[in-house]
Amino acid sequence: MKADNIHKIVRILASQTPKWDVPIVTLVAETSNDPFKVLISTVLSLRTKDETTSEASKRLFKLADNPSDMLGLTEKEIIKAIYPVGFYKTKAKNIRSICHDLLSKYGSKVPDEIDELLKLKGVGRKTANLVVTLGYNKPGICVDTHVHRISNRLGYIKTKTPDETETVLRKKLPEKYWVDYNSLLVSFGQHLCRPISPFCSRCPIEKYCDRVGVIKSR
Ligand code: SF4
């Protein structure tokens, strides 16, 4: 695709997303504007359906919504609140470890730098980028499986891994789109540009898409 078409693509997707469910962490950021909640709900969301993450986050934040209260909960209590999110035992352990580090090393404040966030247990680039963009409204591009897949399908970039996608997008994607790019593509990827057999016949950006690697579509 012509690189310039990214402006039209972003504009069209932004006009369509109100029709679709908002990804869970965007929802948390919009409703709470609290980096701690963005961090914890993103940790909970990994390998977990949005509805499950949403309910688990609500139950957990009712018990504790800051690092010190969270550390006051036992691992068992956290597990009970977050079950059945994926890897709930590991996540409960990680949440306690994160809160311990936030209190002992960061004065109870969630860091706003990717490199510092990556030092926290269980926090990878995706989570770190989401905290920076959604929790602090700072530039960052959160690349998950949807962003990686769709950017390549469009023919906007040609990369092999999400980390490589992040590096290339940082050079290519206009910075004004960085913060929203993830939310737009996650919604779009969940509803139309699905991993297997995307709904190309209903796609609002079909005329701009090279459909790289798309073998089967609906
Ligand atoms: S045309 Fe198909 S592959 Fe391209 S963005 Fe739309 S749904 Fe995805």
Could you give the topology of this structure?
Blueprint (H helix, E strand, L loop, with lengths): L5 H11 L7 H9 L2 H11 L4 H14 L3 H5 L3 H8 L5 H18 L8 H4 L7 H11 L9 H10 L7 H11 L5 H14 L27
The structure holds iron/sulfur cluster (SF4).
Number of domains: 2
Structural class per helix/strand content? mainly alpha
Shape: elongated
Strand content: under 5%
- Over all CA atoms, what is the radius of gyration? 18 Å
Bound molecules: iron/sulfur cluster
Query: What is the C-level CATH assignment of the largest domain?
Result: Mainly Alpha
- Here the CATH topology of the largest domain equals Endonuclease III, domain 1
Q: What is the CATH architecture term of the largest domain? A: Orthogonal Bundle
Number of helices: 12
Average pLDDT rating: 93
* Biggest beta sheet attributes: none
User: CA-to-CA gap between the ends?
Assistant: 21 Å
How many beta-strand elements?
0
Poorly predicted spans? none
Polypeptide structure, described:
With about 220 residues, this protein is mainly α. It has 2 domains: about 5-20 and about 140-210, Helix-hairpin-Helix base-excision DNA repair enzymes (C-terminal) (Endonuclease Iii, domain 2); about 35-135, Endonuclease III, domain 1. The chain is about 60% helix and about 0% strand. The chain is built from 12 helices and no strands. The chain has helices spanning about 5-15, 25-30, 35-45, 50-65, 65-70, 75-80, 90-105, 115, 125-135, 145-155, 160-170, 180-190. Helix 2 runs antiparallel to helix 3, helix 3 (about 35-45) crosses helix 4 and helix 3 (about 35-45) packs antiparallel against helix 9. The mean pLDDT is about 95. The structure holds iron/sulfur cluster. The site of iron/sulfur cluster has 14 residues, from helix 10.
